[in-house]
């Protein structure tokens, strides 16, 4: 499965793995690469043998941002007509869990790609930031919105205006990343966590993601109503019958994802 120019793709143990593969330019994200990522994510979202998606980067960076060389001569109207961020938006439609593992730099669009993941594990040497300010632009793929939701207005503005790099420890403190891990253990621990989620009943995993995402936009009452419907819906699944029966019979459940 390597029909792609800028990424590597594999599937094993229920985990669909995409690895950014332009290490010479620190995985700078060009349009083709984003399209490739999202095409594979869409495919993974449909496949029964993929329960969880893991996104990693090859080399000394997760991704150092959108490809500046590709953008440098662009103009506003061309970007509008191209609908520059359409493929990025498609990532928000993925229903399966996406876990990102960040080593080295996650900057600009690379940070935005990381923030599009549901969970982020990072190596202790990871560095996050929005250096767009230093090249006369600003984030365009959700950075101002997602960072502000995570750390609040004042802290987000500090990072966005300074363009400085946020060390992993600080990213952990603000809930930007879930876990900081020794670099040599990053992949192993990320995949271990992914396998654990992949072993859970897939419909529960999916409907939990859907409900948690609503929490950002819904009022508490609306969100609770939404949650309840998803809870009821799971009683139409085979896995609910199996999970509860296995508990009563004191045995391990065997989930089918239905
Ligand atoms: N686009 C294109 N090429 C990039 C790149 C990027 N975003 N980031 C790094 N590269 C290339 C460099 O040009 C260099 O290529 P050459 O070897 O051919 O010269 C190679 O990757 C290695 O980079 P450096 O030599 O610069 O490595 P370094 O260790 O000295 O510095 C760095 C690392 C601090 C990350 C530095 O590369 C850097 O500042 N990169 C740009 C970061 C940036 O501004 N990102 C935001 C882009 S805009 C954006 O993302 C908009 C959006 O919201 C969608």
From TrEMBL:
Protein name: Enoyl-CoA hydratase
Keyword Lyase: yes
CDD domains found in the cross-reference section: crotonase-like
Organism: Bacillus oleivorans
Pfam family, one: ECH_1
Keywords: Lyase
Family membership noted in the UniProt record: Belongs to the enoyl-CoA hydratase/isomerase family.
Molecular-function GO term, any one: hydro-lyase activity
GO annotation, biological process: fatty acid beta-oxidation
UniProt xrefs under PANTHER family: ENOYL-COA HYDRATASE, MITOCHONDRIAL, ENOYL-COA HYDRATASE-RELATED
Domain of life: Bacteria
Record-linked InterPro entries: ClpP/crotonase-like_dom_sf, Enoyl-CoA_hyd/isom_CS, Enoyl-CoA_hydra/iso, Enoyl-CoA_hydra_C
Gene3D superfamilies, A to Z: 2-enoyl-CoA Hydratase, Chain A, domain 1, Lyase 2-enoyl-coa Hydratase, Chain A, domain 2
């Amino acid at each position: 499965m390597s029909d792609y120019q800028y990424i590597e793709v594999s599937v094993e143990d229920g985990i669909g793995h995409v690895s950014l593969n332009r290490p010479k330019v620190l995985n700078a994200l060009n349009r083709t690469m984003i399209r490739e990522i999202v095409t594979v994510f869409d495919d993974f979202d449909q496949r029964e043998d993929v329960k969880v998606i893991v996104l990693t980067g090859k080399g000394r960076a997760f991704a150092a941002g959108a490809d500046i060389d590709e953008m440098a001569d662009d103009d506003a109207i061309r970007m509008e007509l191209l609908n520059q961020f359409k493929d990025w938006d498609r990532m928000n439609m993925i229903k399966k869990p996406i876990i990102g593992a960040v080593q080295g730099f996650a900057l600009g669009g690379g940070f935005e790609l990381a923030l599009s993941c549901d969970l982020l594990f990072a190596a202790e040497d990871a560095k996050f930031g929005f250096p767009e300010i230093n090249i006369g632009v600003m984030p365009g793929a959700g950075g101002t919105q997602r960072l502000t939701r995570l750390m609040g207005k004042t802290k987000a503005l500090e990072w966005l205006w300074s363009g400085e790099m946020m060390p992993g420890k600080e990213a952990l403190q603000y809930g930007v990343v879930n876990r900081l891990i020794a670099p040599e253990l990053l992949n192993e621990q990320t995949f271990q966590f992914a396998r654990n989620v992949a072993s859970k009943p897939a419909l529960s995993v999916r409907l939990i993601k859907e409900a948690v995402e609503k929490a950002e936009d819904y009022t508490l009452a609306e969100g609770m109503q939404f949650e309840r419907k998803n809870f009821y819906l799971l009683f139409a699944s085979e896995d609910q019958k199996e999970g509860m029966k296995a508990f009563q019979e004191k045995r391990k459940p065997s989930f089918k994802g239905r």
